[in-house]
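Researcher: First entry.
Model:
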Amino acid sequence: MLPMQGQAVAQPLCGLSLVLALDVSSSVDDDEFTLQTGGLAGALRDPDVRRSIVAAGGIQATALEWSGRYQQVDIASWSLLTGDADIFSFADRIEAHQRVHQEFPTALGYALGHAATRLSKAPLDCARSVIDVSGDGINNEGFEPALAYRNFDFSNVTVNGLVIQGADPDPVAYYRAEVIRGPGAFVVVADDFTDYENAMKRKLLREINGANLASAD
């Protein structure tokens, strides 16, 4: 039944709006992409992460793949995660996702702009808003992150990074200097793609628990 005119509608409790953005640029092969989707799903299923989601009063989350200027594709649409059933269903969708793009460069500015737009259209108004961007390289196509931050709405949004180290130029230094932004922003470093799940678990716990000091692992 629709509410009567003027009647207030209470939304579900929501501690965090979280955009999870995974790199599918040409530097990421299919095995490395599978380590990302499987690693993210595994981190979400982790008991500590699930407990943190529940303790936060639930979160709403969406996941997407990004690479070139116009190659941003939804992996899992906005979902309210309040308990194990929601979390496992969301993780299953991420793990089952088939990569759409693989031959495009790394357009980080475009990815951030797209993520901000997705965040602005989230169904619920949550206590905090975070964009969680993973990548293994620096921006090499289109506008830089700084231009995205000037032209899209990032007010009250924190951007954190999960960086797979090893490339040259160094993506870790780049993410720390150019990508992370906002209150408590931080970078977590994965030694390689096989370390992605462990790094993502650490990252999710900090984001969900609302760490309020900017630092980097």
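Researcher: Second entry.
Model:
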Amino acid sequence: MPATGGPAAWAVRATNDDVPLDTPRVPAREAAERELSRPEYHENDPNLLQRALDTFWDWVSRLFDSAAGATPGGPLGLVVVTVAVLALLGALWWRLGTPRRTPAPAGSLFGDDRPRSAAQHRAAAEEHAAAGRWNQAVQERMRAIVRSLEERALLEPRPGRTADEAAAEAGHPLPAHADELRTAARVFDDVTYGGRTADRAAYQRLTDTDTALQRAKPVLTSPAPGAAG
């Protein structure tokens, strides 16, 4: 047998070294590519949407990595900046509240509560005012105004009437107070449906209107829409 390091072994190695390494591999690689391109090998591949999402999240990850490198303090600095931004947004939301959309349409002035007299509404208004609940005080005082006009037969009692409707109808027998009635109805709507907050001054205006209307003499030269008699 020839020695391992003999001329014959050297000749064999030399002959093998002269053969290009890729020569037998090219057909095998092409066959493998053809085999792997068959549809059954790709049934579980991610769909187009999933690939797009993967690409997007890879981009976001690279973006945060870049930001972390550019932010003083590295990743810790990025976390601090992110927390600060979130805290600022939370403070703005708490201070300004949730942005309001268009006010809800005006509903019934008295709602679904059992009927109460003008005196009862006035007493409730005073109770709310004494406790500083100005929104409720304004609402009850407006109800007292309208109920008083109904009790005096200047308005016909009608379920579902709104504050605006009551003010417009009452302006016919009480033309000198038409502007005051419209202002009172607007304050009621702003507080009840517009998200506004009433104060002592707003409640005092409605109280003064209520007092003035109790002393006012109606003008009944022509039938007032919705008025009795």
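Model: Note on the second entry: Residues 73 and 80 are 9 Å apart (CA to CA).
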